């Protein structure tokens, strides 16, 4: 603009150029304003479409979350039932094993007592067995002597 003012007469630059600048500014403002309005309208339309789409997606997601929640609740319930059933079976099996262990301990104790009684009996009989062995030995000797004497 500075070059243009040096080539034009001074009265034109003082009177016409400010007027032309003013008019150009107004025209540019109007053009920009109308373009901004068009862009605003487009943006507004896109916003409303986006909002509708978002609401649609939100409702679909909400439905899926509800379905998942109900499935989770159902699975949680089944898991609880299976856990209770397993706990009950485990408790029954534990009681059965405890009863078997108790029974085996009682049988072991009975056998130990019987074994101790037999050992006591053998210890009491041992002198008699030794005495019997001595008598049998003597008898054999006597029989041998009697045979020799014949």
Overview in brief:
This protein is mainly alpha-helical and 150 residues long.
Helices and strands in order, then pairings?
Elements: H1 2-7, H2 10-148
Task: Compute the number of structural domains.
Answer: 1
Q: Structural class per helix/strand content?
A: mainly alpha
List low-pLDDT spans.
none
Number of helices, counting only DSSP H or I runs of 4 residues or more: 2
Distance between the termini: 172 Å
What is the H/E string? HH
Rounded radius of gyration (Å): 59 Å
> What proportion of the residues is helical, as a percent range?
over 70%
Oligomeric state of the chains present here: single chain
User: Strand share of the residues?
Assistant: under 5%
How much is the average pLDDT? 85
Number of distinct beta strands? 0
Largest sheet: none
Q: Tell me, what's the shape?
A: rod-shaped
Description of the structure:
With 150 residues, this protein is mainly α. The protein has one domain. 97% of the residues lie in helices and 0% in strands. It contains two helices and no strands. It is rod-shaped and about 185 Å long. The N and C termini lie far apart (172 Å). The model has no long low-confidence stretch (mean pLDDT 85).
